[in-house]
Amino acid sequence: MIILKSPEELQKMATAGRMVAQVLLQLKEKVVPGVTTNDLNRMAEEMIRKQGGIPTFIGYRGFPKALCTSVNAEVVHGIPDNRPLADGDIIGIDLAVTNDGFVGDSAITVAVGKISPLAEKLMRVTRECLYKGIEFVREGKRVGDVGWAISAHAEGEGYSVVRDFVGHGIGRQMHEEPQVPNFGKAGSGPRIRTGMVLAIEPMINQGRADVEVLADGWTVITKDRKLSAHFEHTVACTEKGPWVLTEI
Ligand code: MG
Ligand code: MG
Description:
Elements: H1 7-30, H2 37-50, E1 54-55, E2 67-71, E3 74-76, E4 90-99, E5 102-111, H3 117-134, H4 143-156, E6 160-161, E7 167-169, E8 176-180, E9 197-200, E10 203-205, E11 211-213, E12 220-222, E13 228-230, E14 233-238, E15 241-244
Antiparallel strand pairs: 1-4, 2-4, 3-12, 4-5, 6-10, 7-8, 7-9, 9-14, 10-13, 11-12, 14-15
The structure holds magnesium ion (MG) (2 copies).
One magnesium ion binds at residues 105, 168, 199, 201, 232.
C-alpha cells in the first residue's frame, strides 16, 4: 500500500529532509585526501545528534554506521572504515535522518581532490539523471516515467543503470511502497499522486550494469570494477509539482 502524506506530515518530512541536507552540505567540505570514511561517519553522527535527529541507518537490518560510504567501484551500502581516501577517488555518501517520526534520505557523490574528466562526467550525468527523474514527480505521472527519464539520459551518455537496487517510497519508514526503479517504461507503474513521497536514487555505472555484494554482506560493487555514482533526493508530489525535501 502506498501511504499518502498530509500537508502537516509533509512539513515534518521537510524538517527531517533539511537536516539531511545540512549534514551532507557540511560533510562535502570534509572530503579531502587522507580523511577516512570513519572520520566522515563520526562527524555526520555528531552533526545529526546535535540537531536532535536520529541516524536512521544505525541498526537498520544490523547496519553499524550512520553513513553509507561507497568509494569508486562501490555502488551503494559501503561501510565506513579506516581506509583513507586518496586523491582522484570519488565517494558516494548516503545518509538518512529520522526526526519527529519521519525519515529523510539523500545521497551525493563527491570528488576527492582532483579527479579524472571521465569520473567528473559520470558524476555530472548521474546528478542530471536524478533531476530528470524528479521532473516526473507530478500528479498523474507514473513511477515508470521516473525510471524511463533516468535510464534514457544515462544510456544516452553511454552509461548503464543498476537494476538490482532501486529507489523507494518513504515516510515514517525509510522504505515504503512503491519501489522506484531507475529504469522502466514510460506510462507504466503506479500513478503518482499528491501526497506521495519518493526517494529517487539513480545508481549509474561507467561499465556494465552488473553488481555484486562483498563478503561484508553490505557493500555493493560493480562486477567489472569500473566506477559507479549515486545521487538521491527525497521528493514529495504536491499540487504545484515536485518538492525536493532534502535540498536547501
Ligand atoms: Mg539513501
Ligand atoms: Mg534510499
